[in-house]
Design a protein that fits this description.
The complex is a heterodimer of chains A (about 500) and B (about 400).
Chain A lengths: L1 H11 L14 E3 L6 H10 L4 H15 L23 E3 L13 H10 L3 H8 L7 E7 L2 E5 L2 H6 L3 E4 H7 L1 H7 L10 H9 L4 E5 L8 E7 L10 E6 L4 E9 L7 E3 L2 E6 L4 E9 L11 E11 L5 E8 L4 E4 L2 E4 L5 E10 L4 E4 L2 E4 L5 E11 L3 E10 L7 E11 L4 E10 L5 E10 L2 H9 L4 H12 L1 H4 L4 H15 L5
Parallel strand pairs in A: 3-7, 6-8, 7-9, 8-11, 9-12, 10-13, 11-13, 12-14, 13-15, 13-16, 14-17, 15-18, 16-19, 17-20, 18-21, 19-21, 20-22, 21-23, 22-24
Antiparallel strand pairs in A: 1-2, 3-4, 5-6
Chain B lengths: L2 H4 L3 H9 L4 H13 L14 H4 L22 E6 L2 E5 L6 E6 L9 H9 L3 E6 L7 E5 L5 E7 L4 E8 L3 E12 L4 E8 L4 E12 L4 E8 L4 E10 L5 E10 L4 E10 L5 E10 L4 E10 L7 E10 L5 E10 L5 E9 L3 H9 L4 H13 L9 H19 L1
Parallel strand pairs in B: 1-5, 4-6, 5-7, 6-8, 7-9, 8-10, 9-11, 10-12, 11-13, 12-14, 13-15, 14-16, 15-17, 16-18, 17-19
Antiparallel strand pairs in B: 1-2, 3-4
Helix pairs in contact in B: 3-5, 6-7, 7-8
Classes of the chains: A alpha/beta (about 500), B alpha/beta (about 400).
Amino acid sequence: MPAVKETIETVESLAEYEHGFITDIEMEMAPKGLNTDIVRYISAKKGEPDWMLEWRLAAYQRWLTMQEPSWAMVNYPTIDFQDSYYYAAPKAKVELNSLDDLDPEILETYKKLGIPLREQEVLAGVKGAPRIAVDAVFDSVSVATTFREELAKSGVIFCSMSESIKEYPDLVRQYLGTVVPVSDNFYATLNSAVFSDGTFVYIPPGVRCPMELSTYFRINAADTGQFERTLIIADKGAYVSYLEGCTAPMRDENQLHAAVVELVALDDAEIKYSTVQNWYPGDKNGVGGIYNFVTKRADCRGVRSKVSWTQVETGSAVTWKYPSCILRGDESQGAFYSIAITNGHQQADTGTKMIHLGKNTRSRIVSKGISAGKSNNTYRGLVSAHAKAKGARNFTQCDSLLIGDQCGAHTVPYVEAKTPYATFEHEATTTRLSEDQLFYCRQRGLPTEDAVALLVNGFVREVLQELPMEFAVEAQKLVAISLEGSVG
Amino acid sequence: MSLAELTLSPGEAALLNVFPPTEAGDAARVHLRAAGLPNRRVEAFKWTDLRAALAEGIPQADGSAGLIPECLKDALVLDFAPEGFGLEGDKDQGLIIETEDSLELEGAGPLAMIAAGFAPRAVVLRVTQRQSRPIVLRRHPGAPMRIRLELEAGTQLTLIDTALATAGLSTGLMEIEIGAGAELVRYSLQNGDARAIDLANAEVSVASEGRYQAISLMFGGKLARAETHVTLAGEGASCLIQGAYLLSGTTHADMTTKVMHTSPNGQTRELFKGAVQDRARSVFQGKILVERAAQKTDARQNHHALMLSEGAEIDAKPELEIYADDVQCAHGNTIGALDDQALFYMRQRGIPEAQAKSLLVEAFVTEVFDAIELEGVRNWFSSMARAWLEVSSS
């Protein structure tokens, strides 16, 4: 029976993080530490124009004056920002036109990562493969982009950030840093100074992106902080669905990840952004693991624009992440669906901000937090309505589930209402796994772990339904795997 | 003058001179010199900026201590005046009242520290037998109050405290210890105007099977903050904290509560309801913390607010921090305008709009008073609320 076999395999793999391995490929690195020279080096390496370099340097100067935020409910040893590499790139092999040019080790890595077969097929250019465009970020530089041509036919730009700076400087200058300003917060400012690469997407007016866009992030070289920068622009009436998935190899030292994601939705545009995050959470004793300090924000600039964030957060030692929506356009809509699972010694402080500025703006927040082991899981969210946001409406639901008696679940919602014509509703509950339901399942012959997985999947179903098909199946498995070893 | 003092605001500098030369006064001075007054950059005060409210120094005290309503004529009155502390009425058996010059302050926040610093001495109340006669704490404008209240096991007391200064800075600190199976019932009324700054603190600890019950009504002030910290330290301890607020003009009222469950089988019920209009601002910050040992905790927290006009602001932060798994914890928070359909229904039946509005708000807010057992106090609070509605809807 395949199901049983799968369970055995899962349990066997428990002792080790599934994606815990290091690929040995040649790396080109800047020296450790951060100063103006490093910023210049990064910019020069990428052959950036002067305006970009100035932008970076201004951000760096600003960063020097800022302090690391401490309000989140997370504890970690002080990060020495001078003890990290800020640039690592696989040694360039000239231009990569076809898959043959790709480093065979990278291909091998994809295999180990379990990048779904169909996506490997996509990479291999197999005929009839599903139409998902993958822009793989291997450490800091995009090494393979597929389906570019087909996308180009409909006018969609889907490329790496460095390319976009060279090829579409006007677009980049118009939008970069307008959603998350350079001075936004400590990590966003750091990212602005040293961002290595990322994804740039532009959907022209009235175009419905013909396929789901997807990026795999991968942190690889030892001690390399990864500073992704993503910018997605959906012009008037455009639609795009973007998938982001992450895995990282096992390592003892903590790794810093400070990404910035900016989404811009103009009139009638819609962006659907889905994330499955499964970075290395540290070993059984909480050693190692990724520090994930991400700034994600969407600006619903146009009327009737729509952005929805869906995230499944199962990895990282420390997560600090608040994908937000600025509902600027009248009748714009924002949604945030989240599953955050923490196990072992993981800490997650995650949530969203819904900032209602326009009339009749609507937002919806559904957050499901699951804590197991010795972990701490915090939902922190803000819903605010400006005086002009007449008819604003928000519904927030945060449910927390505790598995075991050594973990913590916290809810910290902030609500600020400055207009009487807004309606805000917030509900939160915290409970543990129902003994009755567990007993019922076990009585019918389900092993405890399967029963837990089943019940938890039921608990998070509302959010799973929001994921695109490709992710939903994967995410469901991830939920089960993340909770292995949490009971019994 | 040290460098730190040069950066003090006029309010902070004025406060430094006002603290009496007591131990608590010195401690408050040291704290203020180091940290300054709480301001919006401090997370717990992000919506209640005390430094800004005191930017022009300490406002002159004005107003009266207020009349004690008919229903409380039998009560024992503890009078806090600028000249000192006095007693009115008969004292029952089983109640010991003393004053203490230097009472240590245990692990309190900045507001409690300031309040302790102001009070030249603390009044210590010890309850050794059940008290049938309520105690009224009457505060004169500008008079600081510090009380330490100890309820021995199995005793019961009803306490009514009022802060009615129309102007000036009023500070109150109550340290309350509720013994096993004992119960404290507390009704508070706060009413100021745009010149009054009121800082009220309660530090409550409840032993096993003990109960703390507090119901309040606030009309706000230039800045009014009622901060309550409750520790349910004993098994089966419980608390009920309810509050209503009605704010108009440019008033501000902040209700901050923190309930810590440290033992099993505790129960918390919190309900805050209010209405805000004109340019007034209400703040609700409620935190429930459940420690690992506090299994089988049952905690509910609710805040519901009505915004009656443009320009008003309601800020809320209902917070849960939970480390135990076998618990039931929930919170709810809603903010919105009056229901148009309900209003339409009433007007359709011939009720003038203003009256319909005030009836709806009254029905909404006075739910909080249902838990008041003393009928006289219930009527008193309800009539205060009604009077506000009549003024504000006319």
